[in-house]
Amino acid sequence: MASAPTVPLGQRRPMAVYANAFDVTQIPVKAYEQYDVGAVRWRHRIVERLQNHEAPRVFRLCLFDGKSILYSAAPLDLPDGTSGNYTLVVPGKGRVTVKVARVAGETVTFDDLKKFLTGKISDQTPKVSVALNLLQFIIRQAPNLKYPNNGRAYFTSGGSKDLRGGLQLFRGFFQSVRPAIGRVLVNVDISAAAMYKPGPFVDVALEVLNIRGNARALSFKKHSKEWNILSQFFRNLLVEIKLPKKTVTKKIVGLVEAAGRFPFTQESEDGSSLPTTVEEYYHKTYNIRLAFPDIIGIELSRGSGKNTVIPAELCTVAAGQRYNRKLPQNMTSMMVDFSKFRPEKRLEMIVGQKGDRVRPPTLEYATSPYIQDAGMEISEKPITIQGQLLKAPTIFYGKKQSAASVKAKPSYKRGNGVGSVDRDIKEACALALVSAGAPRGYNKPPEIVLVILPQSAADIRQDVKRAGDVTLGVSTQCVREDNIAKFSGRQLDQYCNNIAIKINARLTGVNSIPSSPAYDWLTKEDFMFFGADVGHPGAGVQNKPSVASVVFSYDRHGVKYSATSRVQQPRQERIGELGPMVYDAITRYGKVNGKAPRRLMFFRDGLSEGEYAGVGELEFQDIKEAVRRVWAEVKLNDPPPLITYLIVGKRHHVRFFPTNPQDGDRKSGNVQAGFVASEGIANPIAKDFYLLSHGGILGTSRPAHYIVLKDEIFNFDIRPIQEVAYTLCHAYVSATRSVSIPAPVYYADKVCARAEYHFDASLRYIDSDGATVASSSTCEKQSFNLSQWRSGYAQTHSSMLARMFFA
């Protein structure tokens, strides 16, 4: 292996912080047997019944993986030795027979995990992964059986907030077992989730529609606006149906108008068929008189293509159901506020009260029967991490780096709104040419179109961006009239300055240039920074594509970027056309600069730990192949560029807290920006580090997690990589402060988010609320046609490639 190059480094000083992680001081020594729970529905409920009601002596301390496997630290006493059939009644589902059988094969032990932690095994083998997953089940089993959960986090009623609109927020705890060098840690964090509000179906429905009145207001016709809203909200939700002497729990598959009047044929005792209605049926069968026969009801699936209609007034939304869709825009800010805590408060909630360090009752690992049975022990004190505080980079400003000022007298055009935006912008461009005294026949668009929007004008903004970025090829800058009106004095100056730096970037200007010793060393050679990401459709949507984006720098300072994007299969994390996208990027760099890059630093957003080896390795080879293709076609004799490929993770729960309040930010209490850590929390199989690059204002700051998968530039010396990454966090063109991730990663995220502007409107990529969701259950069942989506996805206008329209 080649020695690491000598790279100059900036100043850094040692600093210790707390992390929201706890040492596993005793790894289980027992071997666990595996058992399969037969292929039946409602396994969660079946396992719960077996453990707590039907056969607790046999199954009480079993661990369930949430799918089909039970783990037991001792052989189960099953009727047939290694298997057994159990018939039980699942509330709301009826009588079920399930077979539990021993899985042939080796038992699960923790021997390989211990070798992995100490470096005796260099790869995370299947045995290591199974052992880590088993540790997850051990710590999560007790609270997950007691509280609503999503597997990784559980939610209690100890902290809740009414969102209205049929939803409420619950606070809970996230738990995850993470391997580190020489140790296993339990990462614990505060979490929040939106839940469906339990209660009478009628009351919830009225709240969803924001209707004040009685149930009669729910007499909607099929496919009306209100009908569609309620259909989407209640789809697949569990409701309890209260009847005399029994309550059943069922899943909603649809709505029915005027449910009480719904006609059907009922078989009599003599086998004849009699026509009746839902209202008559409930009166004759249960002596229930419907108060509101003309309002909507719910439809339940019975199988065999037959459905059942239930009056809404007899239904109650069951408690403990998580809302897995994207929150409506008006609720997102409430969710953010609900989740924010100052660092000292967050640590106190996780660890316990100051002084006595009493753990929250729900986190008492010492009393969990599953942890006790495993012989597992977990420290009650958070770990202390030794890291360093990096010196902030130098930022250079200068008039020579700015774009030209707009000298021509501006022209004005009042638009008509949605449906005419494209025409309005064309007319505005024509007026600008007349105002500037352009000769007849000259049709080059103006440098920029400033669009003043009314309040809540998401649809108009979408049309503006599509017209500017895709159709016409003119830079656009949107501002809202309510923002202009509400600011004055210093606030107005700040708002205008923020708009100005965006405009300058879109006019190919440079706002600032960052500098640090490692960054300057890297950029002395011809180089390119890349950022890449994949944006996926909303949760549960399978018939809409994912969008992959790549952004790349093309100037000698690494502050000007261009972007490209592609459509690919839904939820495909690997960038399918990464090779051609990198090829286009290097080719464009060569046309702009007249030479080839010598160094490529590639920042990849969004990969999970399980995708490092697979997706990461394949994408690195795609980049290599793109380089080989360029070099072969241009017939370059220069050596190919050195490549560093690293992942930037944001979706994690690691947080840092000052051990000394004086080391924290004076306003927010957060650890100071520039703190970087790898020792004590580092991954055993990859070079990685956590970097807190921004100064938090509200709540607890989240560091970014960097995983260096390939490194030909620095030969895995992570110190200069840390410094370059921190410097790039000061290069984001639309901010005057450092941001949480490097600028190219930020840009790639934004390019994916702007995919809605590129799709043909007929494809309905975005619904009316701006959320990527399927429009109906029928739509969700349709097969995915990638060619249709590709043909309806327009690339960015060629005149916009040098302009940072995404900033």
From TrEMBL:
It holds the Pfam family PAZ. Residues 200-319 form the PAZ domain. Residues 448-760 form the Piwi domain. SMART domains: DUF1785, Piwi. One of its GO terms (molecular function) is RNA binding. PROSITE patterns: PAZ, PIWI. This is Piwi domain-containing protein. It comes from Suillus plorans.
